[in-house]
């Protein structure tokens, strides 16, 4: 999909694209950190109708909600391109040995060769988690590796 970026001097940046129904959609990223979703009128391509205004925290939340389901899908697409590479998900259950402990304590990558590339926590996604990232019950770990490696991470996490 083509996205056009337009500098708005003194205001910020506007990103525009055409959706699958042919509507022109814009997102204005203001210098203040606020965002505005705009839909352009069919009869006047310069007239944008504001649909939604978000502060930076709300925009981050919306981006995470829209992006979270696609992370596992993108990794699945990647694994189709690389023979022997798989993507899996491992849930951190309450009472397991690594709930409320840092990710690095698992030593999952050195023990299995598989990498934990993201943690999905509710609506939030923690991409490329650091070793000091504390795991919580209910977290879902996105793991990339061989099938055996992913199974090994599951065995480590679930004890």
Automatic annotation (TrEMBL):
RCK C-terminal domain residues: 73-159
Domain of life according to the entry: Bacteria
Coiled-coil regions, chain positions: none
InterPro entries per UniProt: AAE_transporter, KhtT, KhtT-like_N, RCK_C, RCK_C_sf
Pfam family, one: KhtT_N
Protein name: Cation:proton antiporter regulatory subunit
Organism, as annotated: Streptosporangium fragile
């Amino acid at each position: 999909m083509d996205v056009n970026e337009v500098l708005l001097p003194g205001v910020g940046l506007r990103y525009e694209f055409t959706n699958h129904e042919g509507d022109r959609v814009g997102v204005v990223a203001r210098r203040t950190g606020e965002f505005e979703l705009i839909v352009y009128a069919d009869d006047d391509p310069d007239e944008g109708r504001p649909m939604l205004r978000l502060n930076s925290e709300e925009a981050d939340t919306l981006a995470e909600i829209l992006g979270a389901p696609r992370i596992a899908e993108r990794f699945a697409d990647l694994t189709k391109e690389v023979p022997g590479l798989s993507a899996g998900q491992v849930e951190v259950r309450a009472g397991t040995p690594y709930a409320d402990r840092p990710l690095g304590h698992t030593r999952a990558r050195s023990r299995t060769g598989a990498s934990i590339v993201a943690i999905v926590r509710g609506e939030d996604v923690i991409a490329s988690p650091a070793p000091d990232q504390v795991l919580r019950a209910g977290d879902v770990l996105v793991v990339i590796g061989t099938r055996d490696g992913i199974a090994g991470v599951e065995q480590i996490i679930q004890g």
